[in-house]
Amino acid sequence: MLELRAVTAGYDRRAPVVRDAHLTVAPGEAVGLLGPSGCGKSTLARVAALLHRPDAGEVVLDGTPVRGFRHRAPREQRTAIGVVFQQPRLAADPRLRLADLIAEPLRAMGRRASAADRVRELAGTVGLTPDLLGRRPHEVSDGQLQRACLARALSLKPRWLVCDEMTAMLDASTTAALVRVVEDYRASTGAGLLSVGHDRTLLTRWCDRTVPWEAVAGG
């Protein structure tokens, strides 16, 4: 279970973006978090992905409270969550080839020996042809780069996925393709999903349940 309990978070303690938020995602469940731009849902997604320490409240992962965030999170918790952001160009190091971008988590975990095979496997899964793997972010489209970012998120076989407006900048065909990749991964692994967005139709079709922002967070 991925649980957010009474989370208050932001970038200025005097003016938190999120107040007293409660949300749970069960193993294998797909939960959509629906809210307008600027409401704080992306900040909450970063907390859920262990990338932002809340000012108050806690994150509980598989029954264990999270005590550290970002690089201070225990390895077993940090690697349990894969995250895909809205803007791939802000989430990707412009100096890296796509193959190296996908391999980043593997190399960080000391899995260099198996990285090349895993990158090839993931590239096929997300629909990247071999010629694209040698290119850098400025040499590919937003859709191709987001495919690489999704492959990176899946590289360590996470038990939980957090997708923060993953398809907001993509066309309909690429959106459908990436949603299908996520759903195939979930079907084969039993991973849970938190998908954050403002598109009610997409979230309703994609997720087992969709929760409006006002039902998650206080004032």
Q: What are the SSEs and their pairings?
A:
Blueprint: E1 2-9, E2 18-25, E3 30-34, H1 41-48, E4 56-61, E5 64-65, H2 75-78, E6 81-84, H3 88-91, H4 98-108, H5 112-126, H6 142-154, E7 160-164, H7 172-189, E8 192-197, H8 200-206, E9 209-212
Parallel strand pairs: 3-8, 3-9, 6-7, 7-8
Antiparallel strand pairs: 1-2, 1-4, 4-5
Helix pairs in contact: 4-5, 4-6, 5-6
What spatial order of strands do you see in the largest sheet?
A: 6-7-8-3-9
Mean pLDDT: 93
* Apparent shape: globular
> Number of DSSP helices?
8
Produce a short descriptive summary:
The chain is an alpha/beta fold and 219 residues long. The chain contains 8 helices and 9 strands.
Describe the structure.
With 219 residues, the chain is α/β, with parallel strands linked by helices. Helix content is 37%, strand content 22%. The strands form two sheets. It has a five-stranded parallel sheet, with helices on both faces. Strands 2-1-4-5 form a four-stranded antiparallel sheet. Helix 4 (98-108) packs across helix 5, helix 4 packs parallel to helix 6 and helix 5 packs across helix 6. The mean pLDDT is 93.
